[in-house]
Design brief:
There is one protein chain. The chain has about 280 residues and is of the alpha/beta class. Helix content is about 20%, strand content about 25%. The chain is built from six helices and 13 strands. It is globular, with a radius of gyration of 18 Å.
């Protein structure tokens, strides 16, 4: 799997963030013999597209955590879906009736907010709505669970031949700063080989933004340890955190996770992680 976008809330750029990157959430998973599976479609999706063969249409599935801009705005800039014959299945949290996921994408990608309508893109995009569901993509088992955030949000767990990745990009920890977790979020992370988890705030920042839908680095480490996960990727870096800040947070988190046997690192654009049991 490869990180293409690791930043939260809004893209950012400049020399101070070049090390970890400034594009928003997108992680691709390459399962041998399978079409690609992608977590989220932030601005990092454009760079994933640039890494694919230039003359081949895309066929794959995207698991979207929620419909905030920083998680969907890469779709119309994903070059492989702009080719005839391309197909993408978008899986996203079920919306409150009568709105549908398909309608909300059509509203976001179309005039006056975007120059062309989503339906005019050459590729075919299908939509599937989920909540607390389980399904398969080929031989990959997928678990979706509703998790706390601002707006309807899903975390995902994918498993192939005993190897599991949990993806909780945006996750609201208890607003009082305590460490507690919903059963659904814990289920996603339990004994995972890798947990990719929201780690946007320091405790001081969280105190000022406790209802903004995110969590602290310390909470992410606690959850990974509580769930018995092997590795934790700190994700959804705050746009105000420069490389030096993330270095410090990651070093402290790695020290905190060590007694529980959790290997902790900060997600970085362009880095590929190989998982194999």
């Amino acid at each position: 799997m490869t990180f293409h976008g690791v930043r939260g809330s809004t893209p950012c750029n400049g020399g101070e963030v070049r090390g970890y990157g400034g594009t928003t959430s997108c992680v691709s998973v390459d399962v041998p013999g399978h079409q690609p599976i992608v977590f989220d479609m932030g601005t990092g999706l454009r760079y994933f597209g640039l890494s694919l063969p230039a003359d081949e249409p895309f066929h794959g599935t995207c698991l979207v955590s929620h419909l905030h801009w920083d998680h969907i705005q890469g779709l119309p800039f994903f070059t492989p879906i702009l080719r005839d014959g391309a197909t993408m299945q978008v899986v996203a949290p079920r919306q409150e009736a009568p709105r549908t996921v398909a309608q909300m994408f059509a509203d976001a990608i179309g005039p006056p907010l975007f120059p062309v309508h989503l339906v005019t893109l050459p590729g075919t995009i299908g939509f599937r709505e989920v909540a607390d569901d389980e399904f398969t993509i080929g031989e990959v088992d997928v678990v979706a669970r509703l998790i706390p955030h601002v707006g309807t949000t899903c975390g995902y767990r994918i498993t192939h031949r005993g190897t599991s990745i949990a993806y909780l990009s945006d996750h609201q920890m208890p607003a009082d700063g305590s460490f507690a977790v919903t059963e659904g979020a814990l289920e996603l992370c339990r004994d995972a080989d890798l947990v990719i988890h929201d780690a946007q705030y320091t405790p001081e920042e969280f105190a000022m933004k406790s209802d903004w839908g995110h969590c602290t680095v310390e909470y992410a480490v606690w959850l990974a340890a509580e769930a018995g996960a092997q590795r934790l990727a700190l994700f959804h870096h705050d746009p105000m955190h420069d490389d030096a800040t993330i270095d410090r947070l990651a070093a402290a988190a790695a020290e905190c996770g060590a007694p529980s046997g959790v290997e902790v690192f900060a997600a970085r654009e362009g880095v590929t992680v190989t998982l194999q049991r």
